[in-house]
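Q: What would this chain look like folded?
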Amino acid sequence: MKNRNGIFWGLFLLLSAAILVVSQLHLITYTFSFWTIIATIFLAAVLIKSLVYFSISGTVFSLAFLGILYAKPLGITAIVPWTILGAALLITIGLSMILNPLLNRHRPWMRYRKAFTRGHRGPFFSYEYKSGPDMKTIDKPDVDVYVKMGNSVRYVKSDDFKTANIDVNMGEAKVYFDHVTVKDTAIINVNVSLGGAELYIPSNWNIIKGVNNNMGNITEDGVRNVDEDSPDVTISGLVSLGNLKISYI
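A: My prediction, written as structure tokens:
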């Protein structure tokens, strides 16, 4: 994780320096405002971070917003912003279906079981058709939750909880850890893209947050009650154009 952060900040500073130098030397005939340069640096940061963390949605949408920002010099003013954003959404869905199986090896928080019991089976994933939320109880120390364009509720029960890998892509997931015992340490890996995940965490856990936020929203709710005997639980991963809520119960 530290190495990836170093790559991100190194590339970000190099690109920021290049943008500032080019803007001051007037090497480009089109004149950019101060706020355009600031927005460019911000979107460039999002783009680099998305590439470093293999985030498809972050990469596509940052490029889409840059296209909207530079529509005039690129000669694409005939394309309205909503068309660009709509195309970005379709591209994100298509690339996610194609590339997610290849990205699993690079993102440990995206590991999931590739098939359920019954349902539609495609070349890259399978899922069940259900009218309501998919509700299950998981009784094991290592948990995998994968949600794609649906709603899922998971109740985790374990006397020796170790890890959880939660991947939400254009869906909603609620995961309850209130019937879980952590003997020493545990880790929860999350990857939320164009969706939302809510984690119900015991208030006596000592939560160590290491989640990267890429144009997403991370919130906490409830009161923590941590003491010297509280287990250390790390929440890591990436929230890209999505929402992660940690509720202490």
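Residues 26 and 197 are 45 Å apart (CA to CA).
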